[in-house]
Amino acid sequence: MTQKPHQILVLALTLIALLIQTGGSQAANPVQDRRKVIGTTAADERLSDYFHHHTMRLANRSLKNIKDLKTWEQKRVQYRKQLFEMLGLSPLPPKTDLKPEITNSLTSDGFIVENITFQSRPGLYVTGNLYRPLKQEGKVPAILYVCGHGGVKKNGIIYGNKVHYQHHGEWFARNGYVCLTIDTLQLGEIEGLHHGTYREGMWWWLSRGYTPAGVEAWNCIRALDYLQSRPEVDGGKLGVTGRSGGGAYSWWIAALDERIKAAVPVAGITNLKNHVIDGAVEGHCDCMFMVNTYQWDYAQVAALVAPRPLLISNTDKDSIFPLDGVVDVYNKTMKIYELYGVPENLGLQITEGPHKDTQELRIHAFRWFNHFLKGDDSLIEMAATKFHTPEELKVFKTLPEDQKNAKIQETFVKQAKAKVPEDSAQWHQMREQWKDQLMKKSFRGWLKKNDSKTKTKIETATRDGLTLQTISFDSQKHVPLKLFVVMPETTKMPQQVELAVLNQSEWDTWLKELASVFPGMESTTPLSAQGEKLFQELRKNVLENQTAIAYFTPRGVGLDAWNPAERKQTQIRRRFYLLGQSLEGMQIWDVRRAIQELQAQPEFSKSDLRLTGTGQAAAVCLYASLFEKNISELDLTGMPASHQNGPALLNVLRFLDLPQALAMAASRSRVKLNQANPKDWAYTSQVGQKMGWDEKQLQIRK
Questions:
Q1: Does the UniProt entry include the keyword Signal (predicted)?
Q2: pLDDT (tens digit, 9 = 90+) per residue, 422-453?
Q3: Is the pTM above the cut of 0.90?
Q4: DSSP characters for 119-183?
């Protein structure tokens, strides 16, 4: 069978990508290289294997079952809705008055540049430069140029990244286009923030379902509205391009808004494998990523542009958008274009060079727009050059006092406000709805069951009247964990078992000293004086109360602690996020698995189970209790009063906060909340009063 030219190209690029990925026959072991991205300890290697397993699981299922156009068209509607949601744009904000303002206008060599601003939402200012031909007859096509991370700042004055990329807009205007170049949130004239999780420790962004990518997408949508309002613009011929960060924003707007008729994202996308396994995520701020609630790989974003003309543009030595991932996105997207019968509408341009705005990249973009928006295939003879100083392109002399750019993360995605139920029927309905939302929006990364085939291992020993057990089990594949159980030697079926979920500081100051007394953990080094003291305190407590205590640390804590470098810890957490998980969300799964393992042991099958935790671990226990049966009591100390300061769970603040979760738990189990301000938990108390709980059901203590 004779192969079409684009099919030959696909095969060739696939071979190139495979060679790059493996490094040829002389490459080092790829598994070892992959593991070193995170760290070199056994725990780091297991985490690397975990990320590899789940990344490839998502990659292999991405667009997998799209066999015909009818199926794709159905999926396409669903995917677009999901993308709006994952960018924090569902429900879509109202399109309020843009209040556009032109603050200055300059005439240059064949074009006019206007310094403009508009408000995409009240107080959310977009600054930009609009370039248009000096002479034109009738309406002309327009390009939205979205900038990458090239901010310009002189003597403490911010001019925006539009100044750095001015040559693109100027070329378009000199060649018969209108081009609107807009600043981004962080590097615009009004400084916003792109680095919430990357640098600022704002993990509550995940809980809010917030990403600055959503702000950039919304600003682009409103920029198209502005372009279509201009008398010079043919509103039916709009294109978008940009590089690096601007490349990413080009993807968002092209996927979301079909007013874009041709797109050239430059160095703005690669696949999940490059980000999570190969470590490209470590070179990107938060603006590059959606909140991956529905666990996509990035070809799903690219496919939403089909069948409109799309040129994927990249260099061959780009370390943060590696070539093999770019080619993979292209190959998977081509299958959708083939379903439409327009493979010629998808292009792949690879030029030599690093992550840089090269002339070769520009020329191909210019030709693409000329072909699809103007029907012009003539040679590009004019170079893109800069004409203006930063001072000439600045929009504001004084920043507007009502600007919300600097703190837009606090209001962009609406936070839920829960009502106190009127009666038990309404409360039941609210609980079930919240639980369903948690499973679909926060814990979608949980598997339906443990995916590891490793059997649970139980080791038992006795010491000084105590039975000591080490229960080793897999929470998931590549996530081996241990339960350390203590109970009186003479007790065969204790009436109560306490599961104590420890945080890192508790492990370091306490259980780390005692670990060697448990079977399978023996050390030739005897207990230290401190360790012996702690053991005797533990022995006294267990024998006097005739109870069993199980100590547990979820993934990332205790024996399973990963690379302690702060930067690596941050990027590990961001990898979970890219997989549609969060570290704390998966720790909740670990506690669920620990509960299941305990309750599966014959000696504990009829015991009352009590969960205890402090700080963040308390909140982890709280959520685990909502999804497991027969939890008699929760004893929680110093738990944060909100996810703003507590564990990061994807999207959770869009429908509930910790007081609502605590009320859900208290309707199932007795709850003791220690070291708490009752005012912070007023909602929980109000629900208890409405439901008629007795004083033992919910106890809140300062």
A1: yes
A2: 999 999 999 999 999 999 999 999 987 778 78
A3: yes
A4: EEETTEEEEEEEEEESS-SS-EEEEEEE--S--EEETTEEEESTTTTHHHHHHHHHTT-EEEEE-
